[in-house]
Each structure stands twice: as C-alpha cells, then as structure tokens.
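Worked example 4.2. Below are the chains of a multi-component assembly; read each line carefully before continuing.
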Amino acid sequence: MSTPLSALFGRSPIRPIQEHMAIAHHCVELLGKFLEASFVKDWDVAFAVQQEIRAQENLADDLKSNVRTNLPKSLFLPVPRTDLLELLSTQDKLANRAKDVAGLMLGRRMEIPESLVVEVRDYYNESFLASKQALKVINELDELLETGFRGKEVELVEGLINELDDLEHQTDVSQVKLRAKLFELEQSLPPVDVMFLYKIIDQIGDLADISESVGARLLLLIAR
Amino acid sequence: MSDIISQYGTIFLIMACVFGFFMAWGVGANDVANAMGTSVGAKAITIKQAILIAMVFEFAGAYFAGGEVTSTIRSGIIDIEKAGFADSPELLVYGMLSSLLAAGIWLLIASHNGWPVSTTHSIIGAIVGFAVVGISVDAVVWSKVWSIVASWVVSPMCSGIIAFFIFRSVQKLVLETDDPFANAKKYVPLYIFMVGFIIAMVTLVKGLRYVGLDFSFGESLGIAVAVGVFAMLLGVLLLRGIKEVAAENEDFHFSSVEKVFGVLMIFTACSMAFAHGSNDVANAIGPLAAVAGVVRSGGEFSEQSGLPFWILLLGGGGIVAGLAMWGYKVIATIGRNITELTPSRGFAAELAAASTVVVASGTGIPVSTTHTLVGAVLGVGLARGIGALNLTVVSRIFLSWVVTLPVGAGISIIFFFLFKAIFS
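Applying the procedure described above to all two chains together yields the following structure tokens:
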C-alpha cells in the first residue's frame, strides 16, 4: 500500500553512510591487531585477522554499492548528491588501504625490525586516532541533518575536522622520523625488505591522509 | 414536472444516503490516513490516539468549517438556472447520485492500486462530467471550476512556502542555538498557540455562519486568542513532564528536543484532522445535500436551504466507520513508511498544510488535503530538513490529475444515463 505521502520519502543515505564509516574504521582497528601479531611473528593469528579485515572490507563494498543504487538522480537531498558519493568512496578507500597493508605484509611474511617496533606501533596508533576522529565526524551527520546543515552544529563539526587535521599532521611528523630511522638501518637489512618497509610506512600514513580527506569531503557538504 | 421526484423521492433519498455514506466511508478509510499518518510516523501519537483525534476533529471540522465547501459542491459548480433544473429537477438528482457513485468507485479502484488519487478531484471531475455531457456545456460555472483547478496547484505551493518558513523559524529559534532543548521548551508553547489561533480564527471568520453563529471580527479575534491560549496552557501542562535525558541524547543529540516537538505534533494532528474534515467531508455530503434539498422541497430547487444536521451526521459517521474498519490499517502503514519525518519537521508540514486547507475551506474551495501535505513536506525539504525526497511522486500526482478528471467524468456520465433510463 502506498500513498503519495509515504512514497514521497526516499531512503535517507545518512544512516548507511555512517554505518559504512563504522565498518571502514573497524578495518583500521583490526589492522592494529594484525600488526601486533606480525610483531610477534604469529602468522596464524595474523592470517585470521587478515581474513577478518577482508570480510569487513567486502561488507563495506556491499554497503557502498547499496547506497549508490538507492541514490537515483530523482532523489531530492539536502546536500549535493555527488558530494555524498565522493564522501562514500573516500571512506571506502580507508577500508581498502587497511586491507592492502595486511595483505602485503601477510603475503611477504614481513617482519618489522625489532628496533623499529615501538615506532611503528606509535605511528600506527596515530593513524588509528585520525581514523577514529573521522568516524566521530561522520557520526555527526545525523545531527547536521537535524539542524539543516546550519548553525552551532556546523561550528562543532568544523572544530572536530580541525582536530582531525592536527592528528593527520602528527602522523606526517612521525613518518619523517620513522623513515630517518629506517634509513640508518637500511644497510643492515635485505634491500627488497627495505623497499617494502618504506611502502608499508607509506600506506599506514595513508590511513591518516584518507581520514583527513573524509573530513575535507564532509566540510564540502556543509560549505554552501 | 416534478412527478418523478414525488414518485421516487424516498428511493432517491435512500440511494443518496447509501452512496454518500459509501463515499464518506472511503474518505475515512483512505484519505484520513494521510492526514494522521505523519503524526503516527513521527511517533508523536499512537494509532489509537490518532483514530480518537480523527473522530473528534474530523467531525468538528466538518460541522464548524465545512459549510462553505459543501455549498460549493452542492450548488456552486452547476448553474441551476442555465441547467434547467427548475423544469426537470430529477436531472440534478441523477447527476449527483452518479457523481457520488463514480467518485466512490474510482477511489476504490485507485486506492486498491495505490494511485495517488484525490477524493476532491474525483468528485469535481464527476460533477463536471455529468453536467457537460448530460445537460450542456453552459450548465457548468466554468469560472468556478477554473478557480478550483487553479487552487489544486496553488494550495500545495502555498503550504510548501509556509512550511519552509515555519521550519526555518524552528532552525533559527531552536535547532541552531546553543541550548536547543531549553529553546524548544520556550518556543513550542508559542507554536501551539499559533496552531489554536490560526485554525480558530479562520473558522470563526469564514465558516461559522452555516452553523447559525455570526461573530464580528473583534469577537472572532478574542475567541481565537482564547482558543490559542487554552491550547498553549494544555501544551505547557504536557511539556512539564519532558526532561532532558543525557542517556537518550548520546547517539543522537537531539532526541530530547524532538520529544518536545512531539507534544506540538499532538496539536497539529488535531488541526490536520479539523482541516481535513472541513474540506473533504463536503465531497461526500455536498451531493447528498443537493439531492436531499431537491427531494424535500418536492422538486423546487432552492439554493439557500441550510444544511440539515442529519446529513452532517451521516457524513461524519461514514468517515468514522471507514476509519474504524479500514483506516487504522492505512494509518499504520503510512506511519511505518514515513519515519524519516521527525516531529520538528512533521509539525511544520502539518501546520502549514492545515492552515492552507482551512483557509481554502473558508473560501469554499475544495482542495486535496494529501497533495497540500505533500507540498508542505517538500517545503521542509527545501529548507534542507529531510534526508531524501522522492521527486517522482510529484509527476505521479500530476499524472493522477490528468487521469482522474476524465475517468471520474466518464464513470459519472455512464451512471447518469443509466439512472435516466431507469427512472425517466
């Protein structure tokens, strides 16, 4: 049974986008567990966690295409449709990148040199915090909708996004330090391993970069 | 020349009562649900409360403010003199019976298939149809018809604009502020006052003369203020129990604020039912009143005869019966479907739609309550208040107009000639 009134309401993309971000962040969180397992060279656990990340990433993909198919052009939204879709695909990259890191490390059985473990852990944690902040920002989407993307709530979200930018900047600083330390060590390590270590450091840093661009995308939604 | 009337008068009257009741039943089963579903969807009221509110306020709306539209449908669309009803009043009886039957049947088909068809459009199409084909093109007061058709476009637009500004005021005064909860408690009573005041004022100024009451503008203003204040005090009483609960605001910071607006929505639900009663009950009882008028006077058609109370009772009874037998299911379905409409939005849409419809009722213009409400919801959407709106509905509504008018007319014409063949 449908009446013009009930048919008028399309499915709001806000809640699914929030769910998608929660899953993407969960992938980043799982990567922490994976790294810990790799530090102690427990590849069975690492394998299990990597499988879990893959499953979560698939879930995020499904959710993403679900939102896309339920967002036809005839839908009238409070924010530009293209901006929402961009936001969604940025969030999706977060899950993808977490999967990439785990996949690469597992495939090569990569061991982080003992002397770097503490730094890598801290470095990952900083990226994790950026992703967590991005999730916090996205969780304000329903409040933004409630206020019609106006007023105090906008200021609050802008504040959260500023904090997110700071967190990302922190990972940049740590990345420079970590690279310098690896540079000192690299003569003593197999060259191919070193190459991939640089790559892993890069990709863990990407997690923070992508988190930051999630915030930037959201800022675009608000700014009109 | 009124042989047929004196011979079959009682039969005509019984038929008109049955068809009128059938039509009113259909309005109650289907149309009322749109007026009430928003409040149920926003969880401001339960289905039982919705039915109770609808029963009381639909009837009140029909009684206090429905006279003008009833008079339009009964004798405003067809020119009595040019149609020659003075010589053959039975034609008017056939026509009104066919119109009721045609509109009722078309509504049944349409609601079965889920088409967004309006009772108002069906009955207007049916009346114009039988008059043009059965009598003559000149029998129709075209200026009136065109103003009605224009109002079908204007009324959703008007309520859309009003809803936009009401919701913008909610954003400015409550949602955008530092302490939305405190401001909600501060301003919601004022909105409640507005609901009571607007509805009472329009009714007092425009509608009451059909009940035999006539107030001066000053008196009306005084009474409307009193109604508004009474509603506001009632609202303040209900609001006292609502406290800001930190736990419920954890996931969604505006949960407590929306609860405050939920109280407001009880009042707008009443106004919506009142507005609907004032406009849509006439679709069922207007034709019935026309037939009853002809039969009672033994064929003499008098335009000024008052609206007998029993007709109103029959219309109101039909609506209540439709609501109780079938309407509650429709309300439940609609309520489930439109959960996206939170109380802060729903109230803006309902207040805008109810005000627009009541003004239309006062002016004697039959409009579609549902379409007016759709316009109001779009207005809230334009203020960036709703997650996603499906704009294809708008084109479907336009399509339903294009289809309903000729189909309603067609069915009505068939019945008109059928009755003519049977009785004349």
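Take a moment to check your reading of the output against the notes. The first helix of chain B runs from residue 3 to 41. The mean pLDDT of chain B is 88.
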